[in-house]
Amino acid sequence: MTTSELAARSRISDVDALRGFALLGILIVNITFAASGYPIHVAEDPAYDSGLDHAVRWLSSTFVDMKFYLLFSFLFGYSFQLQLEAARRAGAQFKPRMLRRLGGLFVLGWLHMILLITGDILTVYALIGLILLAMHKVKDKTALIVAAGIYIWLLLAMGSTGLLMDSSTLLDPAGAMAAAQETTANLAGGFGGVIGEHLKALPLYGLSIVSMQGPTTLAALLIGMVAGRRRLLSGVTGHEPVLRKVQLIGFPVGIAGGAIYATAGGNGHTLAVLASVMTAPFLTAAYVATVLRFLHTTRGAAFSKALAPTGRMALSNYIGQSVATMIIFTGVGFGLVGQVSPLEMVVFAFAIFAAQLVLSRLWMNHFEYGPLEGVLRGITNKTRPTWRKLPQTV
């Protein structure tokens, strides 16, 4: 095996391990919307009002919320560049391939958020991916300027809104509580009630995409594309000085912003959200640096081997997480919605992810692609889906 092939294999392993790590964070966030009807209405369940409950929510808001979808988006942009280069090597036109891929993601995402869980990131990637596709020939400097411009715009727009308008006056605590109770009851019912709640949440989710999640996703995609061009995750040893610098800056800034967000009221206050939006990229970058440094230690190598298969079939695992939470919490399955504390939600999240680590390893031992990855690859390349294991060469 040549040096370049070894570097490519290292790159793939690191990217997949990071993607697997991101899946855990995304699950910790998403499970709150599957296990209770209160978060979607920006309300807290009065049944879980202990100091421990508040502490768990605070820790999640500080260290998890808004961080991991940015990492997932960065890696999507990184992979976008790899797919562009793969198309060139294959002598295929990139634009038609990517349009088919984005179309497949949109359909999967739409079905996902209607049938399985409130909210979805795949439809966001499909729509924002069209912008990335239109910009895939821009210079690195232009892409980074646009990404920075997005955050400057959010700072000005959200900052002025937060200063000129008291967001608390827009909230109706009694109405939110009643709506949360109704949502919880519907999620505990049959399949029709579950789908009905998912449909009712679409306007609010759409507003979130337009106002905050869509723009920040585009910024992360553009930064990921530039990183892919420069092969920033290729041949990482874990000893690069820049990783330590990213940690030294990212952790203090990111944790401070997350703490402000959690303490000031979370999604119920515009300035609190702004604090998280502005600082989340710092904490996300610090997480990436920390994971990369750890994966290249003796102990971390075992974690890399465990995470990489999960990340290689990230699409299947992302959808699989929603299937699991639907079975556990809604009336379609065991109906535990509204009956688990914030700490128990986190325990469920780790249990689901642990199962995915095992199942992903077993699947990837026998197949080249995950279940949905094989389907999406077929759509992208306009071929029959295949999952067969490719022969190993040295």
From TrEMBL:
Domain DUF418 positions: 227-381
Transmembrane segments: 21-40, 143-165, 204-227, 248-265, 271-295, 315-337, 343-363
Keywords assigned: Membrane, Transmembrane, Transmembrane helix
Domain of life of the native organism: Bacteria
Pfam families in UniProt: DUF418
Entry-linked PANTHER family: INNER MEMBRANE PROTEIN
Protein name: DUF418 domain-containing protein
